[in-house]
Task: structure prediction
Amino acid sequence: MAVAAWAASTAYSVGDIRRPSLVPVDGLFFKCTTAGTSGSAEPVWVKSIGNTTTDNTAVWTAISSVYEDVSTLAPDTIIELFEMRLVAALHGSNDVYRWHNGCNANVSGNITFASQTYTRQPIEADGFKYSSAGTLPRPTLTISNATGVMTTLLLLVNATTTGNDLGGAEVRRIRTLKKYLDGESGADPNARWPTEIWEVDRKAAENRSIVSFELAMKTDSPNKKVPQRQLIGNICQWEYRSSECSYTGSNYWKADDTVASTLAQDVCGKRLSSCKLRFGANGNLPYGSFPTAGRTQ
Result:
């Protein structure tokens, strides 16, 4: 269904459905569940299905932008689109490649969605299913190499970063319905499932027929910590006398918290006690650590 954009200072009834007018919320529309008049400025929309947004006297509940269509007995054809976004620092350019596999609908050539053209290309993608087993999915994206296009792209990328093989490239999986493609009577760039964002973890295979990549979530990367800043109990992580630390005083202490006489001898001990010497025991401490870490069970 094509949905109108939200409007300011407008009376809405229960059941009215609108989409954000400024920044779309990927995969979501909003249904009025409490009648009222919208505010003079667009609200900050929630980003999860079922959550509500208060808009002056009206209340909106987030719903899937495609649920009504796919819940029917004969839903319209589901279209699966892929984008591969390169990173200049790794791959030598910020080029974006867009493909569709042409198997989801009776499409003989390229298709356009949200004003972007997707080239018809034999693609096989699987492994996107989530499970409760505690491990994140690592999908496989296999792209035809019959014309040597993918091998050529890999050679260009590896000329920038040896052996990169498109590692670190962002892959977006976009799903919508055929009726919402550009040129269709119900064209709507906002009607889609939430966009899935993956990263090429490694090249799994390459031959004259195909090139296959293993994808991973950005959080599913070896040797990376989430959050990247560790919870350390009593070691300040800020650089002393930096904008983070903010201390610029003329009182000096050594690393063991004893008084120093010159700036050259001034060294922060990185402890909470060191911070209190400089800012006062009851002052506002810009302490770059987590004193309560490890004190909870």
Remarks:
- The CA atoms of residues 103 and 138 lie 23 Å apart.
- Residues 78-216 form one domain.
- Residues 149-160 form the longest helix (12 residues).
- The chain has a mean pLDDT of 87.
